Task: structure prediction
Amino acid sequence: MSAPTASLTWFARHELGLFWRDWIGMMTAGRRTRGIVLTIVLLVAAVLLHLMAHALVGPWLAKGVTPDKSTLVLLTGGGVLFWSVMLSQALESVTRAYYARSDLDLILSSPASPRKLFAVRTAAIAASTMLLSGLLGAPVIDMLAIDGGPRWLSAYGVLAAGSALAVAVGVGITLALFNLVGPRRTRIIAQIVAAVVGAGFIIGIQAAAILSYGTMNRFEVLESSDFIALAPDPGNPVWLPARAAMGDGMALLLVMLVGFGALAIAITVSATSFSKHAIAAAGVSRLGVRQADGAAVFRASSQKQALRRKEWLLLRRDPWLLSQTLMQILYLVPPALLLWLNFGRSAGAAVVVVPVLVMAAGQLAGGLAWLALSGEDAYDLVVTAPIAPRVALIAKIQSIIVVIAIVVAPILLLIALLSPAAAAITALGITLSAASATAIQMWFRAQARRSMFRRRQVSSRAATLSEAFASIMWAGAAAVLAAGSGLLAIVPAVLALLVLLLAWSIRPRTA
Amino acid sequence: MPTPTLALDIKGLSKRFDRPAVDGLDLKVRTGELYALLGPNGAGKTTLLRMVAGLLQPDAGHISILGIDTARDPVAAKRVVAWVSDEPMVYDRLTPLEYLQFIAGLWEVAADIAEVRSHELIGWLGLAEHANERCGGFSKGMLQKVALAGALVHEPRLIILDEPLTGLDAGSARAVKNVLLGKVREGVTVIMTTHILEVAERMAERIGVIAAGRLIAEGTLDELRARTQHGGLSLEDVFLDLVAENERSAAA
Result:
């Protein structure tokens, strides 16, 4: 054996081995040809993304980029947007390290040091966050380097430091929550914080743009002269990450020192208490939760009512699932604000919010449909019940429709007051988008525990992609139709139907 | 309408995955008897019972439950059957009482009757203290008891159980056995698989031994003893003899 058992390197090799098998399994699903096809698809996607990035950064670089205040504001603003998503991911991963039981019980009951395990797992989270942010940022950074010079490659260093800092902050928040609210509430609060952080900055900046400029374009704020005038001078340390990204060596060194230093401190401080908190987290699932009046919900209900009420009760009682679902709704806040501000003044604003609503409804329907159709914890019970499968399916779909209606109805009403035609188009778009997402989830239905909701997008990439493309196409069609170009709306509508046809043709066949 | 004499009548049932799991199996279980189905791992017991419960579609053959053809009228068949899997099918975020009321809703049991039965079953199975607690924090044994209560709340006439006593402590196992024997005395038919041969020996009126997807022996314990070469005393001896004999004849 090359490394002593349960040493840091031994744990690192073990974790790396598990990660590699998981990744290969996810990519190939046990089929070599699938891996080859996927590699080709990823290469083509990478080329396309680089071309798109070239179209984005080319004109900007052509104007001549210098480290003046406006450039620093734009880069920092974009960077904070990106970092907020990194922090959201890191926070969720760190929380999972405490609560996921898979092999934790085995390791915690062994004589191996939990401190070393946590150090390795935190480092692994940082590494995966760096990898993900690197992959996402690569098209823009590569094109900046090709079009603007190799100095831009130092942006990769900023991404790495940002990832390390995000994980350090994630560890800090988790530890603070353990100490402040205890293990029982830490997971749910951390997940809600992650969701809000992930969406919050984007929503906040959109809201600021709406309030100040009446537009939903978040970069409008970052490029405005008023905002730039309020920003600190170019010599301020707040611009260090932006300077580092532009190739300032000293700034890069400082940024990396801060990022990796924070991670090292977070690991050192938190590793000693990991075992204590992980054991406390393990005890949470054994704590009983008393309910007062739930049984009354099912009393005197028909078969379909029982199924519908069960779906709503389970959704209501699962704060994490609810937070994930409500996160979709969070994105509806800026368009609602835009509508509110334009109430009675301009029907044009309604046109702007149509695609946002249609997209959000599609995403919401996809999540709810997965929960109702695939995430059935008592699958055997429902199948062996004396109810025709078609009737059970209808009941479950009805439960989804009601939730979506409750969410979108108030905004639809606002649009209707502004422009009845736009409201009708939005309602049609929402119906088509939600119906498409539900149909796709129905075709790709695969029995799973509700707690696997987070991994639903990984378990069927075909379903996830089809759902997203169908929603985008219906949103596009609705937007074009709302703008008054009826004929042009046919193109995205036909594309949406083609996506559905493709999804239907590749759906898994049941035995 | 008179009660049919056969609770379960299976003819030529087959199901194939990568190899035959159930292979042209015939089985008759009389109304009001407790029938134990034994077999080594992978013999096809669970596949057979899942087809009876309507969870798997047979490739060939016929299943009749209390005279109802499951292929022709699956909903009517399901109305009289309860299925209890070895993995309890319970919602983490419902309480036992809510779970039973939900099942009562699916089987269309009148609300007042369902409420009385739910409390009765929860009491019998020693769950009264936890009746209003979410099932998420329950042990496997407690979940198994909740699932069993769920199976009984709609008063099925045929109860199918796959390893019902796995994970139960001695007290809980006795409570479950008593409930099942009580149901048999009321005329309900119980079919169960078990690896605990002592349970089959003590509880079952007739025992079926299944291997490689086929029923290789069937009868009372005495009838099975008579079939083996050594006439072993315990069911374990009889079972191991029968399986070994079947493997020898398959290899020959």
About this structure: The radius of gyration of chain B is 18 Å. Residues 163 and 194 of chain B are 5 Å apart (CA to CA). The beta strands of chain B are 6-16, 20-30, 34-38, 60-65, 68-69, 81-84, 158-162, 189-193, 206-211, 214-219. Chain B is about 40% helix and 25% strand.
